[in-house]
## 1
Amino acid sequence: MKKVKFATSNPHKVREGNLVGKKFGIDFVQIKQSYPEIRDEDVSKVAEEGGRFVFDKIKEPIIVEDTGLFIEALNGFPGSFSAFVFRKIGNDGILKLLGSEKDRNAEFISAIGYCDENGVKIFKGIVKGSIADEKKGMEGFGYDPIFIPTGYGKTFAEDPDLKSRISHRRKAFQKFCEWLTKEG
Ligand code: IMP
């Protein structure tokens, strides 16, 4: 197994990454090195700066991952500020903000920043969907109870197997693992 350090405080992300990693013989190992999340609307930039910061600290190849939930009717809010907004108003606050809005389109974007002595590379994954009318499901974390992927009738929190097959994170990790297997 090739080991890759993953700087995150979120064990769910490591578990989801490893569902992909195991098919490639890659084991993502959580390290709790924190890093500043810069204020930028682009999750790729946040991951890029985070990856660089952690690599400069530990001098070993490293990944960080940043996710945003972009809601169309809210002009992409909360986007790269999703963690802050989740802490402040949570899923109930998002549902309140949307109210009876008909356009509930949204997408999750995940950006992995891999940094080694050659610099940073970014791997992105996107899943499109919509915001549910109410919270549903007990699995997953964060915004999973209010996100229904396009073409399915359940939230990610109701169907974690579905999430592991089609999620933004799954796609980003798939791209990263393919690249690392070829180039790394
Ligand atoms: P960050 O990537 O850790 O900055 O996460 C941003 C916010 O989005 C946090 O509040 C997370 O709980 C939430 N979040 C991140 N990934 C997911 C996901 O896969 N599903 C639902 N919420 C997520």
## 2
Amino acid sequence: MSAPNKEFDPKQVSDLSEDSVNRMVAAALTAIGAAGDLSELKEVRLAHFGDRSPLALANREIGALPPAAKAEVGKRVGHAKAQIKDSLTSREEELELLRDQQALLQEVVDITVPTDREWTGGRHPLTTLMDAMADVFIAMGYSVAEGPELEAEWVNFDALNVPADHPARTMQDTFYVTSSDSGAVLRTQTSPIQIRAMLERDPPIYVVAPGRVYRTDELDATHTPVFHQIEGLAVDRGLTMAHLKGTLDHLAEQMFGAGIVTRLRPSYFPFTEPSAEVDLQCFVCRGSSIGNPDASCRTCGSEGWIEWGGCGMVNPRVLRAVGIDPHAYTGFAFGMGIERTLMFRNGVTDMRDMVEGDLRFTRAFGVEA
Ligand code: DAH
């Protein structure tokens, strides 16, 4: 309540008349209604409801009234204050809503407006696929091994038990750097990295080697003279083909989905004995398309299996060539083409798309990690 009024002024007391208070309320309500935004309303609040507003000043005079009038006038002022306060609150809510609506309109982002797109660089899908395959082995404790793309003929062929007269060694298949007796070739496979790994390390050896390889093929839908392979090699005591099969099945599952297995078909490679072709169970039809013309499968040509690579137990002659005792150690190895893998994994039908560097092709792979 107000302190006793020492400076009594009858003119001001007349401000507490019903008329006068009604006028103050009317003026306040009009001003509140006219406030167009929250900052205007703030000023109105100060002018009509603040400590120095006419109503507040008049209110101070209550103390000067005769006791009989105090209650009535107090009620009148209280009622006036409540009216102004209510009006302020509801106008404030309205203006807040208005402000929010305007903000939504003004700050709207038109996502259809064309922009100058800035493309960020991405890695080539062959690179990401190679890394993804290598990662499966890194997770099993393998390390990544490397070798030069310009390789000694002895490492690329002889140490791998490829005989001197093997057709793969002819200049029709292999890029010799100067002449066919230079002793230097562009490696035709990642298998020479096996030799380097075994020369550099003592068993147990668990390495995976993705890399670029070269052959004198013409570029067409299914061949390219520069391509990529991934090689795996394990040399340890007591390794068997069962370990090889389990390893390949694990890779197949990791790359193509749970339950996808591999099949080994007897074959021949000079550096493995026994040797096998690795087939991948078709991850699209899972074999259901075999002999089922109503549900043919484009991925495997309704074969149920897709040729993936080669593998086998490291030939004892290869172990001996790098100074590992084949009676103490056995090994398994495998190798597969990355381009081929990308083709059936991502439905790429033409290998040329992978080498031409057209961004319209690579961008489709986005930022696949
Ligand atoms: N190097 C072989 C090729 O290019 C693929 C291969 C077959 C690799 C058998 C291996 C293996 O490690 O054991 O055709």
## 3
Amino acid sequence: MLQLVKNASKNQENQAIVSGNQVYTYRNLLEASHEFASYLLDQTGDLAETRVAFMVSPGFDYVRVQWGIWRAGGVAVPLCITYPLPSLQYVIDDTDAQIIVAGPEYAELLAPLATQKGIRFISLADVDALSISSKKLPNILPDRRAMILYTSGTTNLPKGVVTTHRTIEAQVSTLVKSWEWSATDRILCVLPLHHVHGIINVISCALWSGATVEFLPFFSAEAVFEAFAKGHINVFMAVPTIYFKLIAYWETLPQEAQQQISDTLSRFRLMVSGSAALPVSVMEKWKIISSHTLLERYGMTEIGMGISNPYHGERKAGYIGKPLPGVRVRLVDENNQVVKAGQPGEIQVKGKNVFLEYWQRPEATQKTFTDDGWFKTGDVAVVEKGYYRILGRDSIDIIKSGGYKISALEIEEVLRTHPAISDCSVVGIPNEEWGELVVAAVMVKDPEIDLKALNQWLRERMPAYKVPRHYKIIDELPRNAMGKVTKNDIKKMF
Ligand code: MLC
Ligand code: AMP
């Protein structure tokens, strides 16, 4: 039996999920996910690693579908709820999903796509109207594939990162232990649920521990502070941009309201930041507001979390901490030799937390591991007094904005298909709020190009967070002697 399910069975009367003003116990979650798994099995028999793409809003329904897929033996493929159709279609095609599950808000969008592709379509609203008899669930072995999450990389198309149940259990259990999760915890989830930060660190760690997850449908600083003000939440995890936005909102409040928030925050057990570098200024301001030194940690879709500042002990500003238990980390030079103490090198990782493969991309999978099985992260770091500090990334084409990883090449490919654009180059420029801001230098066929219309055109083709925020129209892209665009020169233009 899955460890998450085993643990839940021990905590049946605890509150598992609070969403949409409703409280659901672990018993409710076990029953509802068993029911959904039974429905899937009715349709297909043992799912035998069938990819099930699902688009469901954050809350109880999301988790019961995710657990239902897992308990029926399927591979869960969460779809981002803010993706435009082409981005959804890419994930559905690339995973070769055989089933699509849609929450009520998304049925109209996805049903035609499923019909067109001949994929079985399940509307949650329809399932809920049925009476489903409980089926015996298959025994799920730890090495069965469990989930595919999409991540942008140094290729122009996102790759599916496959994890098994064993991987997920390793990723969750090291965090539960290191950060001392317990059944008395209650976390507020404001993160998107198609990435590890929300799925592993927030939901799965909480539910592994018998704790409670309270969901907000989407992030808003006001709603977050309102939820905190009720006094039940004691754990929070977010990307630096969210802390930046919370600070900005707090600063607009009258002093009395500020004080109330600060009093509430000072009673929290744990506050974590990650997915992008936490600016020291944000860490310091948050400390003044909340009395908490944010715990910064480092992770990646392919490894879950790898390096973390300590729960007990010094949390160093500007550092990501030390390897988590069970995660082996080394720094290597360009010849793949371990660097001398104090020297910078690429972070490489080994351990049960590391993903299985890029879905149906054996070459990319092979390229990302060394011959002796270390995963190459592409992040460069140095160790100082035992603490890792990130220096940057190998590739200028990978941008982190708002905690999302974005491939410059992917945006360039789309931009080049626009009839008024002859060539372009996309880069990330430093920005305190977003980490990096996506910007584009473009060569145009039509000097009268309407940038507002271009923006709209892009938003129909890619998620809003990937769309460039500034453009520079130029006559020629700067290139080196080899003809390669010199992206550092592009950065200087902004
Ligand atoms: C949105 N906007 C941006 C932007 N994203 N502007 C600049 N850069 C960006 N990246 C703009 C929108 O276009 C809109 O403007 C306005 O901001 C509000 O949009 P929104 O979508 O409502 O934004 P908001 O909800 O405020 O989003 C901010 C956020 C979100 C921080 C909540 O980006 C987020 O949820 N990020 C978390 C991503 C995450 O979970 N990453 C983890 C990956 S896993 P306009 O003008 O259009 O109205 C990983 C491993 C690990 O990294 O270590 O964890
Ligand atoms: P993703 O592919 O979305 O999982 O993003 C993983 C990447 O986020 C890593 O390779 C890092 O570049 C970055 N990242 C995660 N946590 C941190 C952190 N604490 N500091 C700096 N970068 C981080």
